[in-house]
Amino acid sequence: MDMKNKAIEAEQKMLPDGGAYLNRELSLLEFNRRVLAQAEDPAIPLLERLRFLCIVASNLDEFFEVRVASLLAQHQIDRADGLPDGLAADLERASAECRHLIARQYSLYNNEITPKLSEHGIHLLHRSERNAAQRAWVKQYFDREVRPLLTPIGLDPAHPFPRVINKSLNFIVELAGKDAFGRGSGIAIMKAPRVLPRVIRLPDELSDKKGASYCLLSSVIQAHMADLFTGREVVSYSQFRVTRNSDLWVDEEEVKNLRQALQSELHSRQYGFAVRLEVGRACPPHLADFLLNQFDIDRSRLFTVDGPVNLGRLLEIANTHDQAELKFPPYVANYPNKLSGPDLFATLRKHDALLHHPFESFQPVINFIQCAAADPSVVAIKQTIYRAGSNSELMEALIAAARRGKEVTVIVELMARFDEEANINWAEKLEQAGAQVVYGVVGLKTHAKMALVLRREPGGLRRYAHLGTGNYNTTTARFYTDFGLLTADPDLTADVNEVFIHLTSMTRPKQLTSIWLAPFSLHKEIVRAIRNETELARAGKPARIIAKMNSLTDESVIKALYDASNAGVKIDLIIRGACSLRPGVDGMSENIKVRSIVGRFLEHTRIYYFRNNLKHDMYLSSADWMNRNLFRRVEVAFPVRAPALKRRVMREGLHPYLKDNVNAWELASDGRYRRRKARGKGADYSAQQALMDMLGAAAVAAAAATDNANNKKEDHGADPVAPR
């Protein structure tokens, strides 16, 4: 039987719900199961468990805002016709998975997280749990801070159902009796003002419990609901929250100024079509039905929750509470000693510098741009910006460089989802400072992470570059794992310059010698490298592929990996999130293993390794192996050439993650992930912890102190070859 028929037969043996590819949406929900498992893990500090619980809530919000909304938007059809069978089945399965996840979330919140927080002096008090002094304080707070901002709307022909903002807290109230005009309008809708904090700390002196006591805004409003409807009886009520489609859309053929078009679209995002309704556990069915009808949401996307409709708001407690024993031990990233000299550019002329965040500090990247901004020999700076955050030393350095008269060109991606407003603001500030700002390519998100510095030196203009796998965001750089390369390599920096010219001029890029560029060559080169390993394996030579990324969903790349597996290529994939590849199927993918690492830091690094007959090709990239990254974004993959740096990427970016048995989950052919467990006492190995131990400031300082002590011993006649 040839390989092709063998693969077809294997596909026919798949599970009934399967095939060659796993469902992307269900794979995303599987990722959130793994994050929720962190919240369920008693070995993790309590406030960090609360943080993971909030992350799941936020992730599910985005799942509905983006993925479910996208599926529905593909089929804007008359409701009477119903949804296509395949889409309806996908949504039904996704909803069932979401219900299971949400049930686990709230069970964990109510039965474990909240009681344990109370044991440690962090009390989340319901109405019935507040003492008399606290109830009096809450009443005063309600009258002083809350009631003046509330606007209940009794529904009638003159008071239609109000527009409800995406993910906002609202209440539906059922009333009995007549209103002030003798009419019997029975339902009122009330929005919770966005300016009010959702988590309120009660004065410590009022508590009869040790520690800090909190209550939620929803609890404050519900406790005084009757005060808002004088002369009416409140029969029932419920908090509710609507999740809406949050994708922005502009007409690429009609738009003349992308920034202006997006500014007008940002407001409308709050009112996209509704995709999910959440209500409280006590919400009467007829009120839920009324809301479903108003928002035109199918019942399958109604979620009744046993607690606050937005668990993500509790992140405020994890962020602000200062009990160190309830959080991960503080970690201080090391600043690489090789980059601590007075002249960063002189250092880069000698050798490339590899940075591994957050284990190593992001400060050298900031210093690179700040030095360029201040150096009179630097004549130009070019940079891409995808997510910089609302506060950024790096962006301020670009503004300072422009004000000093340097040629500053910044490609700001205005369509970076949920960062559009911050990026628009930075674009305006850069333009005001005199920088040249462009917005990438309409229809293609510019996701590549590149900065280029041109410096006038005795031999002429010299280029220096930074290329990375992650964003130029100083906040996320402390929590996301990423590699960055600082280099003065002439070939590599020349390619970077060509990419910038391509992005600003819109001309087709010249032939690049080092960089793989999407949407032109990246997909072709990835498939070519996979096929090269396939041919080596068929020729009887050792062949190996290791790749690490956020998501793997492109079917053409997966097909190439299946062919490689059938040829005997050993393939290890480290995929944090969605993975559509089905591993471990005889005749199709038996040589492929897939694992996911979910730990203290968000795994964000993209690494492609191909053995290539001992050439050991190593690429770092901004791109996942997804159709959108390979064909609908501007992405780069860049080589790591120095043997020592290749070894570092393998030693720090790949091998520890293949060895991990603490935070690792392995994907089975049925689409489910099983957690790896250590075998034997003391056999635990966490990749992230190992990297912290290896690269952290404390570890580096300790190693330096040991070296100094040994050097002193050697100076006093100690045996120079004695073991350390």
> Average pLDDT, to the nearest integer?
89
Structural class: alpha/beta
Within the CATH hierarchy, at the fold level, what is the topology of the largest domain? polyphosphate kinase like
CATH class of the largest domain: Alpha Beta
Any low-confidence stretches, pLDDT <50, length ≥5? 1-17, 714-724
- The 3D shape can be described as globular
Please count the beta strands (DSSP E, at least 2 residues each): 27
Overall domain count: 3
Q: Assess the beta-strand content as a share of residues.
A: 15-25%
Distance between the termini: 58 Å
Number of helices: 20
Question: How is this structure best described in words?
Answer:
By secondary structure, this protein is of the alpha/beta class. It folds into three domains: 46-326, polyphosphate kinase like (2-Layer Sandwich); 337-511, Endonuclease, Chain A (2-Layer Sandwich); 518-701, 2-Layer Sandwich (Endonuclease, Chain A). It is built from 20 helices and 27 strands. It starts with a helix and ends in a 9-residue tail after the last helix. Mean pLDDT is 89; it is low at 1-17 and 714-724.
